[in-house]
Amino acid sequence: MVLVSLAFLLLSCGSEKPQDFESLRTPIINGQKCLASEFPSSVEILIDALVDVSPLGVRHIVSQICGGTLIRPDVVLTAAHCLDENEITQGFGRMLKLRFAVISDLNLKTFRQGRQIPKYAVWASKWVMHEQYGEEVSAQGTGLQKDNDIGLLFLSKALSVPPAQILSPMEQQFLTQGSVVNIVGWGQQAVESEQQDSKTALSKMCAQTRINELGEFEIQVGSDAQSARKCFGDSGGASYLTLPNGEQRLIGVTSHSYDSEGCTKGGVDTRVDAYWNWIHDTINHGL
Question: C or N terminus of the chain, fewer CB within 10 Å?
């Protein structure tokens, strides 16, 4: 969901080598490790950034930052706030360079240890946020909103994994309150980092949960402490629905927490079917 401030990192680390972005990563609670065959379209987005935090100097940040979903061989769907420079820096410093890359590893431990973008990662050549992102959020900022929190990464080359299909407006009747959905993410599996299982830390995790509330532009995924749910650090990640014919559809992009209680009531996804036209128009324009 929403990114955690980079303030500590930017103000404390040196500029001589890349540093890690220590967010509160709680992607899948009450889940299990994904198999290699499960949801191959789900990818992890990395950043390589230089941030000027004068007078303390320039900080080099290399980190995983968000999830995403491959919807075409060279296009990844994610949340707009994952691509927003102001969200990434949280107002601490000026972005000098920002690049995005994607990987689909089942485990991120090797990446975290090396603190450099892997040679096999695929770089993004362009990225686009929804032009009205954040403009229509209510003053309360809780519950289901119309945040337009959706964006696209255009990759420099195609990935060799099958992309997900987006739920179309003609298939909306299959998306209902109470629908069983699959969620995917990397990172902590408990709200408190010390409670997570070290054996599964930074692994790609999967779980089944339900849609607790269905809005016109957003959905609440998961509901309480007993349900599987996404949480802080899993922004941009996917929710999948299985249709009656057995086909899977991408239905949601993780956006924000439901209210001020954080992850206790599940997370809120942007409904991708509500942005069907924007997605296809942006892809066609981008190409």
Answer: C
Mind giving me the DSSP string for the chain?
-PPPP-HHHHHHS-SSS-B---------BS-EEPPTTS-TTEEEEEEEEEEE-TTS-EEEEEEEEEEEEEEETTEEEE-GGGT-HHHHHTTSSEEEEEEEEEE--SB-HHHHHHTS--TT-EEEEEEEE-TTTTTT--SS--SS------EEEEESS--SSPPPPBPPGGGGGG--TT-EEEEEEES-SSSSGGGS-TTTTTBEEEEEEEEEEE-SSEEEE--STTS-B--TT-TT-EEEEE-TTS-EEEEEEEEEEEETTEEEEEEEEEESGGGHHHHHHHHHHH-
Would you say domain 7-286 falls under CATH 2.40.10.10?
A: yes
Domain residue ranges in the chain: 7-286
Q: What is the pLDDT at residue 48?
A: 93
Query: How crowded is residue 47: how many other Cβ atoms within 10 Å of its Cβ?
Result: 19
Q: What is the pLDDT of residue 141?
A: 61
